[in-house]
Amino acid sequence: MIISKRLAAGVCALLAALAVGFSPTGAAADETDPAQSPKVDLVLDVSGSMRTRDIDGQSRMAAAKQAFNEVLDAVPSDVQLGIRTLGADYPGNDRKTGCKDTAQLYPVGPLDRTEAKTAVATLAPTGWTPIGPALLKAADDLKGGDATRRIVLITDGEDTCAPLDPCEVARSIAAQGTHLVVDTLGLVPDAKIRKQLTCIAEATGGTYSSVQHTDELAGRVTQLVDRAADPVAVPVATEGAAQCTGAPQLKAGLYTDRERFSEHRWYRVDVLPGQELRASVSVGADRAVNQDYGVLLRAVTASGREIVRGEQSGNGRTDVISSGLRYPKAPQDDDDTEPAPETVCLQVSNSFSAPASVKTTPGLPVELTVDLVKAPDAASDVAAFGLGRGWWLLGALVLTGFLAGVLWGWIARWRVAVWRTN
Amino acid sequence: MCTTRVMAAAALAAAALLTTAGPAAADSPSPSPSVSGSSSAPTQAGTSFRTAAVLQQDQPGTADASTGDYLYWVFPADAGQTPTVRATVTLPEAATRHGAATWQVDVYDGLRRRQACTHGSQTRTAAADAASVELKCTLRPVRAWSEPWANDPLPGSYYVRLTVTGLPDEDLGLPVHAEAEATAADAGGAHAVDGTLAAPLVPGTATAATAAAPSDDGWSSGWWTDRWLWTVGGGVLASLAAIGGYALTRGTGRRPVRA
C-alpha cells in the first residue's frame, strides 16, 4: 500500500517535472512568428567627439564602423535589427536644434546586411549628443509585438541636453511595461559618462561596459544581440491592490509590477485542495538605494491569517532581492463534493529606502512568479519504504540469521536423536 | 560452500560499489530534452533569474562579461547531494584597474530563496594586482522534503549569482572572464528524510526556458534509495549466516550416522 502510493507520487512528480520542462520551452522556441521575434535597436553616437583618435590608433568612429560590420555579419537570422544615430546631421551651434538630432539609419526589421553596412559606412561624426531623445525614439522604433526588446547604446559623451535626464527617460521607458532593456557601452573612461551610462543600464536592468578596443566593442555588441535572441519567458504586467479584497486574480505564470518604497501590493491566487502554491518575488533596485534593504512575501488567508512567509534582507550592491514561499494544501478527504478552491492572498512588501534626492516614482520593478503544482506534500515514515541501511542493520540481520540457523540445526539434531532412540 | 562464499563476497562488493556509484552516475553530463538546446557547456551567462544559463553538474560554464554585470547560472541538485559551487573570475589586466575588488557568489533555490553556504569563501577581495579570484560555496545537504516554513535545500534548481560587490567606480565596465561549476558530493543517509515533494523545486511554467533538470534519468528522489541495497544485502547475508549456522550444528551430528 505504502509502496504503491509512493511509487504513484514519484511517477506524478516526474510527469509534472517533464510537463513543466517541455511545454513552455516548446512555445518559447517557436520563433518563426514575426510578432515573437526579438527586436534590437543599436543606437550609435555620431557626435563630433567621435573624431577623436584614441581606440587602437584609429578614430572612435572608424572603430565603431569596423565593429558594426562584424556585428552585422553575426546577427542571428531571427533577430529584427535596426540602427539609430544621434548627432549625425546637425553640425551647428544651436542647442535646441542639436538636441533633436536623432534619426533612424536603418529601420527595425529583417536585416539586409549589405544595405545596413552601406548605411553605416556613410556616417561621419557631426553634432551633439542627445541621448535622452534618442532613447525615446528608439523605444518607439521597437514598438509592437510581445517579444524581447533591447536597445544597445554606444556613446562617447554625456548627454548635454538637460533638463531631459536620459536616466529618467530610461526609467520611464522601462516602467511603461514594454519590457525593454538598455545596454550601454562607453567609449571613454570618464567619470561623468560612466555615471550616466550605469544609471541608464541600472534603470532598465541592462548592463554597462567600458570599451577601449575595437575587438571588445564588436565582441560585446555581438554578445548583447545574441542575448536578445535567447528564448525567454515574457512576463505579464499586472497591478497589485492595496489590500486583498479587489486584488488581481493571478493564475500560474510570470508577472511584473511596480512597487514604491515601503508600499504593500496584494494579489490573489486560487489554490485547489491537493495543489501546492509556489510563489517567488524579486524586487529590483533600479536606482541608487540605501545600503540595507529587504523583501517580504506573505501568503495570507482571506480572513487575514498568515499561512507562510518568505523573507530576505541584504546589504550592499545588488540587482534584485528575492524570496519565495510554498504552500501545500492538503487533499480533500471525501471525493463526493466538488473541490472548492481556497483564495490565498499574496502580499509583497519591500524595505528599500533611498536618499532624498532619488525619485520614488515610478516604483521599483517587481517580478512575481506563481506556480501551482498538483500533488500532495507530506512527510511519511523516516525510513524510505520501511527499508534500513548501514552496518548495524547488516550485523543484526546476520546475527539473527545465524542464530536461526543454529536453532534450526539443533532442532533437527534433536528430532533425529528422538527418532533414532524410538 | 566455496561458491556461496564467493557469491556473498560478490554481493557485498556490488552493494558497496552501487552505494557509492549511484549518485556519481546521475551526475554525468548529457543532453536533456528540457534543457534549452545546451548539450555542451554554456559559454554565456544569464543576467537575471529568468535568463540564467543552464549548467549540468560537473559541467563548467564560462562567460565573458563586464565588471559589474550580474551573472546567473542554474543547475539541478537532487536529494542526498551536497552541492558545491565554484566560481573563478579572471580579472582585467592590473594596469587598467584602480584598486581592490570584492567578488561574491550567491546561491538561490528554485523559489529564489537565498541558500546559506556552510563553507567555502563566498566573498573574496582581490588585491589590485591579483590576476584572478576564486570563490566557493558549499550548500547544506539537499533533503527530500521539508516543512513549507523551513528554508532547507530541496531537490530542484539552484541559481548561482556571481557579481562584484565592491570596487573603485573607475573599474566598472571593464571586461572580465568568469567560470562557474557546480559539483555534488553524496551526503549519505545521515541527512535522509522521507517524504517527497510534489514536484522538484524548479522554477515553474513561467520560467521554464531556464529549467534545469538532471541530465539522464530525471529526479531520482521518487523511489530510489540505497536502503534497497543495504536491506537486500542484509537479507542475503542473513540467509547465508543461517545456512552456516545450520551447517555448524549438523557438522558433528552426521558423522556417527555414516560411521
Automatic annotation (TrEMBL), chain A:
Signal sequence residues: 1-28
Pfam families: VWA_2 (PF13519)
Protein known as: VWA domain-containing protein
InterPro entries: CLCR, VWF_A, vWFA_dom_sf
Residue ranges constituting the VWFA domain according to the UniProt record: 39-228
Residue ranges crossing the lipid bilayer per the database entry: 390-411
Source organism per UniProt: Streptomyces beijiangensis
Region span, Disordered: 309-340
Keywords for the protein's UniProt record, in alphabetical order: Membrane, Signal, Transmembrane, Transmembrane helix
UniProtKB/TrEMBL annotation, chain B:
Signal peptide: 1-26
The keyword Membrane belongs to this UniProt entry's keyword annotation: yes
Transmembrane region(s): 228-248
Stretches with biased composition (Low complexity): 23-42
Keywords: Membrane, Signal, Transmembrane, Transmembrane helix
Renumbered residue ranges of the record's region Disordered: 23-46
UniProt KW Transmembrane helix keyword: yes
Protein's name according to its UniProt entry: Secreted protein
Lineage: Bacteria, Bacillati, Actinomycetota, Actinomycetes, Kitasatosporales
